[in-house]
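For this section, I looked closely at a protein sequence along with its fold in C-alpha cell form, which I now present.
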Amino acid sequence: LQEEYPDLVFVENTELESEQLLSLVWEQVIDYTVADSNEVAITRRFYPELRVAFDLNAADHLAWAFPPGEDHSLQDKANEYLRSLRDSGELQRLLDRYYSYVANFDYVGTRRYMRHIEQRLPDFRAWFEEAGEKMNIDWRLLAAIGYQESHWNPKAISPTGVRGLMMLTQDTMKQLGLKASRHNPQASIEGGARYIAQVKNKIPKRITEPDRTWMALAAYNIGSGHLEDARILAQSEGDNPDKWIDVKKYLPLLSQKKWYSRVRHGYARGQEPVRYVENIRSYYDILVWINEREHPPQIPTRALTITSPVL
C-alpha cells in the first residue's frame, strides 16, 4: 500500500489487540486501522457503526506456518488435532458459535438493541438479576430472552394471547404459581425464569452445555414435543440428537409433510425456534460484552500514545 501511496503515514502498535484498535476507531480516538476480515465480522455486532473502507488484498486461505526442516512432528500433531476437530464435529460447532450470525448482521436492529440497553434495561435489570440468582440462570440470558420476546416492553400483547415482558400465557402464570398480572414486569420476569428452568429440566441430562441451553430456548419457543421430534429425526438420519448444530437442521423440516408425518407431534413452524435461538445468542453475547466493558482491563498508558491515522 505504501508503494502505491508513498506519502501514507502509519504507526505500528504492539501494545493493543486488533479488537482494541477497532474499539478506538469506534470511539473516534483514531481515524482507522487495518484488521483481519474475520475479526471485523465478529466485532461488528459490538461496534455496529464500524465500516470497511476497502480491502487491502484479495481473499485468501488462512494457514498455519511451521519452521522449515526435516522434523515434521509439530506439523503432524497439528494436522492430527485439526482432523480430530473436524471428525468430532467440534470444528463445525466452533464455526457455528462464532460465525453463524455474521451473514444475518442487522445494523438497524443492533443499533436499536444497544439503544434499548441504555434506555430500557436499567428499569428491569435488578429483577433480571434477582430472578437469575433464584433460578441459577445467567441474568443476561434472561434479559436476552425478554428482549426477543417483547423488546423489554411490559405492556406487550401478542395476537396469540401471550402478554407482558416475557410474553407468557395466563395458564403458564397460574401453573407457575404467580397470581400477579402478566403486565407486572417483576412477576413476568420471575415467571419467565421459572418457566425456562422447567423447560431446561426436561432436556435429557446427558446433553451438555451450551447445547442444553440452546435446546431449552428452542423448546421454550416451540414446545418440548416438537424439539423432541427434531431430535428423533436427527438421530434417524445419522446426526447427533444431543448437539444443537445438528438438531437445528431438522426443526425447519417440521413444516414439511414428508418429515412431520414421521413424528409424534406433527406440523410445526420449525424455522421460528431456529431464528429465536440465534437472535437470543446474539443479544446475549452483546450484553456480556457490554457488561464486561463496565469493568474493562487496564490498557497500558503507552499504548494510547499513538498518532492518527493508525494502520
Summary: The chain has 14 helices and no strands. The CA atoms of residues 155 and 303 lie 47 Å apart. The two ends are 11 Å apart (CA to CA). Confidence is low (pLDDT under 50) at residues 301-311.
